[in-house]
Known about the structure:
Mean pLDDT: 91
Structural class: alpha/beta
Shape: elongated
Helix content: 40-55%
Distance between the termini: 52 Å
Number of strands: 17
Strand content: 15-25%
Low-confidence stretches: 505-509
Largest sheet: 8 strands, mixed
Amino acid sequence: MDKKTLDELEARRAAGRRMGGPDRLERLAKQNKLDARTRLDILLDPGSFSELGVLGRSPHPDLHDRTPADGLIAGKGTIDGRLVYVCSEDASVVGGTRGRTAEAKISRLRELALKHAAPYIALMEAGAGRFQENNGAAAAAIGNRFREHMQLSGRVPQVAAIMGACFGGPSFTAAQSDFVPMTRNSGFMGMSGPAVVRVGIRKTVTPDELGGWQMSSEVTGQADYVGEDDRDVLLSIRKFLSYFPSNCDHLPPRLAPEPALCDTEDGAEALNALVPDNHRRAYDMHSLIELIVDGGQSFPFRPAYGKGLLTHFARFDGHTVGLVANNPMHWAGAMDDKAANKLRKFVDTCNAFHIPLVFLTDCPGFIVGPEIEEKRMVSLAARILNSVASSEVPKVTVVIRKAIGLAYLALGGKTMGPDRLVAWPTAQFDVMGPAAGVELTYGQQIRQADSPDDKRRELLAQAEEDASAYIAAEQGLIDDIIRPDETRATIIEALESAHATRRTGFVSRIDP
Length: 512
């Protein structure tokens, strides 16, 4: 082949890799942002990236020369030696707006991720679709991306990192993904950006008000993790995927087991002393988790949302688990609508990718009252029960203290089919909180007593005695009562028994 022909190819390739030019790249750096290619360098194993579509450009005559790679870097690479497909949106090209060629490249990437059963990762800093390429009747054919994401759902892990303004379509596809990390102060997601809101309802708002990191992580729960900067977000993706199989046809990877803090004499003593006998006194569930998991390390999922419930990925004896635990330091561990939404997404994700569930239960029930009813708590609670009851992964439930009513069921109660159900000596089971039960059942008797307060205390003490985990154990309603320092060994033993008979296969699609 003529050298001139080959030189032209190399020149076109080089032009496609230049991005938006030095001035625009410098502007991104001043905003404390990494450019699209540097992001890939951090995310992927060194030297593993292979690009697809570097010659792509906008077909629009006014944009052709201004759109190297059409503002989207796409291809495959590896993370910890495992294949992933990834795209990285280039904000230095036409402000990161999405072109038709870029859409075609992403569609091809999703096709390959599905065909090769590999995780799909989108590093997003996308403005809206370019109006000049998508306006008019051509809009009748938009939206392939949503069908493609649904085809991937539950089959391969999907990650959508919000690293810039991602209002509109990018936010919708992020909501279809399994993990959505966001960069603090520079990531935004929502239905529409400030300009569209101003035109649509004549209201001036800021990006933060619509979908900044606080709104997305604390109020809506649509961001699963908030990174301090781009690098933090990229490393969180590597961490998240380390707990997952590449696809639903495999079990999660098992790493070399690491000892837990509770394996030491001091750690065991700390675990035994952590939880007060008095159910009205709080303790830090984070400390309990740290004491019992491999290496004291876990990865939180939506930590700022639904704070009465903790959801973490962790390991026991090298095996990945999804940890669900109540947080007594927030509303005594009671569950609200946010905790319910978080729990359902977490359980469905774990179930789709064969990640066993470990419940550390200490919950006085669901939040009650007219405000929570307005948030459809009945429906949310019912949907949680559906998810937990239909999950096919191994489940281990350890009741720490309170196991009350339907919340207990949602947290791996007996009728949800746990592979092991044990309790600490401090545990109590009841259909509702003892105080409420006493008032409902004996209210008139209390009011007619010579000393209502003494009578109430007497009846409450009896109700709490009747709720004792020892009675549940005596009647064969739970498997055992264990010492706190036996918790880790009990969980590992239960998981080993379940692992011996596990099967893989497509389980379910995931509802965000």
